[in-house]
Specification:
Blueprint: E1 4-5, E2 19-23, H1 24-41, E3 44-47, H2 55-58, E4 69-71, H3 74-82, E5 87-93, H4 99-107, E6 111-116, H5 119-132, E7 138-142, H6 157-167, E8 171-176, H7 187-210, E9 217-220, H8 223-228, E10 237-240, H9 248-252, E11 263-273, E12 278-281, H10 285-288, E13 304-307, E14 313-322, E15 327-331, E16 345-350, H11 353-357, E17 362-366, E18 380-383
Length: 388
């Protein structure tokens, strides 16, 4: 889980394709942007590491020191605990089978918070807590828009769950995620989504407090709402994950610009089908994922936009189709295909950074702020966390 120094003078022309690339300069710029916003809003930023799944990327977040993080699997929680992170939220609903791993992390001194939204879950969590002889910090998931999970703040079960958890010294707070903000297509819609996210979480916390149940943590966040929030009064922490890399979905929402995308995939041209207007590469959905998140946006970006090896966009060239190991590039709006001989290396900017990163074991790291000469120099290779 540690950085591997790159061999001298290796560039993006050297490793076999396809492979994932992180531009550390752009990542740092993205990180600093949201941290500055969290500071202005007076809340703790708890980055979601499900996107990068990397201790090396996490080290960029807080000058190399451990900070509060969010994870989406217990394997991530364990890997970050091994890396010195002791304040972790596992933001997926809990089931009984996973509790022994949760308790093992708590016994190691890790403040691991879990999530639930039912009395059934609260009952088996508190029973496990009593048997283990230690509290299991637990947050109640609140549904602010997407209905994937969570309770509405006026749900009758909210205070019942809160009481069950409190009686076992397990109640930690409430957590919500504005998943529908990924379909908020204007700045005003995103601002309203952020306001609704805050209002919903705070209303749930206030209802629990009115029932004499203590609420320490009020946690909100998604990448769109984190960048749109104007007032987080009553909120204690802000979560986001995609912002470290950004992607074409976020660019399509104007949360970022295409120039901010820090993750790309290097592929090689392996063929041409001029009769169909195709350029064929060795990067299919195994390299890019099947995510087509921009299809619902005003500008469908296919499976990704295409740049040269230095990261400059090639006008009107889009990855429009993918099979397992083959990618198809076509020209948009009747434009001519560029002359890209077999062996040409390109970079594809992804629709969904989380899904694309998940296809790779690690990242080759470049720094666009430095003069790379004929091709970007690989500064290091950062492994990703694996396992479940």
């Amino acid at each position: 889980m540690t950085t591997t120094p790159a061999p001298a003078a290796r560039t993006l022309t050297d490793p076999d394709t396809p492979f994932a690339v992180v531009d550390v300069h752009k990542s740092l710029r993205n990180i600093e942007r949201l941290q500055a916003r969290a500071n202005r809003l007076g809340v703790t930023l708890r980055p979601h590491m499900k996107t990068a799944k990397s201790l090396d990327v996490a080290a960029l977040l807080h000058d190399g020191s451990a900070c509060p993080v969010t994870v989406s699997t217990l394997a991530e929680a364990e890997a970050f605990a091994d890396g010195g992170y002791t304040d972790i939220t596992y933001a997926v609903g809990i089931d009984p089978h996973k509790l022994p791993r949760v308790i093992a992390l708590l016994r190691r001194g890790v403040m691991l918070r879990i999530l639930l939204d039912s009395t059934e879950q609260a009952a088996f969590v508190t029973e496990a807590s009593r048997q283990a002889g230690l509290p299991i910090p637990t947050q109640i998931e609140i549904d602010c828009d997407g209905h994937r999970g969570g309770l509405r703040p006026d749900a009758p079960a909210l205070t019942e769950i809160g009481r069950i958890l409190h009686d076992a010294d397990c109640l930690d707070g409430v957590l919500t995620h504005a998943g529908e903000s990924y379909f908020a297509y204007s700045a005003e819609e995103q601002r309203l989504a952020a306001q609704n996210e805050r209002d919903t979480a705070v209303a749930a916390a206030e209802r629990l407090r009115a029932a004499h149940l203590p609420v320490t943590c009020v946690s909100v966040g998604s990448t769109p709402t984190a960048h749109a929030a104007e007032d987080l009064t009553g909120v204690t922490e802000l979560r986001a994950g995609n912002y470290v890399f950004f992607d074409l979905v976020m660019a399509g929402l104007d949360v970022c610009q295409v120039e901010d995308l820090a993750l790309s995939v290097v592929v090689t041209v392996i063929g041409h089908r001029p009769e169909y207007g195709w350029i064929v590469t060795d990067g299919g959905w195994m390299a890019m994922s099947r995510d087509r998140g921009t299809a619902a946006q005003a500008q469908d970006q296919g499976y990704g936009l295409v740049t040269d090896l230095d990261g400059h966009l090639i006008p009107n060239l889009v990855m429009t189709a993918a099979s397992q190991e083959h990618g198809t590039l076509t020209a948009r709006d009747g434009a001519d295909l560029p002359d890209l001989p077999v062996g040409t290396r390109l970079r594809i900017l992804p629709n969904h950074a989380c899904a694309t990163a998940a296809q790779h074991h690690g990242y080759h790291v470049v720094d666009s702020s430095k003069d790379a000469g004929s091709a970007p120099v690989i500064q290091a290779r950062w492994p990703r966390i694996t396992g479940w």
